[in-house]
Amino acid sequence: MNISVPRRVTAAAALAALALGGLTGTTASASPVGAGGALAAPDIPLANVKQHLTDLQAIATANGGNRAHGRTGYKASIDFVKAKLDAAGYTTALQQFSYNGATGYNLIADWPGGDPNQVIMSGSHLDSVTSGPGINDNGSGSAATLEAALAVSRAQLQPTKHLRFGWWGAEELGLVGSKYYVNNLPSTERAKISGYLNFDMIGSPNPGYFVYDDDPTIEQTFKDYYAGLGIPTEIETEGDGRSDHAPFKNVGIPVGGLFSGADYTKTAAQAQKWGGTSGQAFDRCYHSSCDTTANINDTALDRNADAIAYAIWNLSTGSTTPPTGTVFENTADVSVPDNGAAVTSSVTVSGITGNAPATLKVGVDIVHTWIGDLVVDLIAPDGSVYNLHNRTGSGTDNIVQTYTVNASTEVANGVWKLRVQDKASADTGYINGFKLTFP
């Protein structure tokens, strides 16, 4: 991940104008066929991903300690990935570009089949900084993307949509490789990319679980995967222009992705829900010589690799019905006092004509150690109360669920609230997120 000024993320999610043509999100499933007709994704072997990281470390060690643009370590890295994909049946192409007087390379790999007019593309930057081998940044994303691509081959997947994978050069110098790729795509080819998924730093040693909040469908796909594990996520806030999804987004291609954190400090609230050490960076070896194979959290790497496969399978093999919906979301944490007063999280709905729908989707993400203590209500702008959860679930942790509410008697526009009250002692938690989706 390259360095730039981080953006300020708003609570409102992307509007339907960014909705993915031809993508459909699903819920987590262990069955052979998931929701929406999508085939269930395979488990990605952690050992395989770690072996790719070991190989990238060996390449860096043999080439001056890094895999940076214009250095022999980068070319050896791209050749390593290409050989794996060629053997697995992909059609691969090296794209050359020049930057700072050196030749750079992107690697593009296409899996045969699928609708060529609906392309699901996944990518990661393969280069490191000159000061280290770049195993978390971004060997982790590159290795997991590679293994997901190899899993497609092992399964001989026949997706509805066409699958393409990319490994980018010179990201650390300003997204140079991915910009070159996007800028040299004819507009007709850009229009065929239904979604680009980006994976940059997914094995940070003090990890968080961050999801990009760009395209609503891609975002929800990743959130659904983590909801199936009972793991809360947060919106990625370290900067919209710091990785290779930015060039795609800038030309109107829907984007999304995962991130486990860089040089920002993990807060106490984040440590409470994810573990790890508060007051310490997510990755203390960011852009440093210590970003080696010892700088990886296996659990985060394993979960994120599986999430990549989940998204690829679900977004490429499910229904081709375009999603609809306008999303209003609040991701600010709200502490729920133990056996105390009710608290609320609010969203302001605007731009919706008439009344709310009979199928209003209410997304609830509450981190709590005993949800049997909780009463959860949706409060309409006129004060009407719709109960969502009333002290059920006994000792189950967390409420990560989407409820359907018949709100057809309510005016849509106005302030809607999620109200949560803990009505018993000894357990604590907080509202992690609340959103409304209007069809």
Largest sheet: 8 strands, mixed
> Which parts are unreliable, with pLDDT below 50 for 5 consecutive residues or more?
3-38, 319-323
- What sort of overall outline do the alpha carbons produce when their principal axes are compared? globular
Could you give the count of β-strands?
A: 17
* Helix/strand order: HHEEEHEHHEEHEHEHHEEEEEEEEE
Residue fraction in strands: 25-35%
Q: Helix tally?
A: 9
Integer average pLDDT: 89
Query: Rg to the nearest angstrom?
Result: 22 Å
**Strands side by side in the biggest sheet:** 1-2-4-3-5-8-6-7
The end-to-end distance, rounded to whole angstroms, is 36 Å
Secondary-structure-derived class: alpha+beta
Helix content: 25-40%
What do these coordinates show?
The protein is of the alpha+beta class and 439 residues long. It is 26% helix and 26% strand. The strands form 3 sheets. The chain has an 8-stranded mixed β-sheet with strand order 1-2-4-3-5-8-6-7, sandwiched between helices. The chain is globular. The two termini are 36 Å apart. The relative contact order is 0.16. The N terminus is likely disordered.
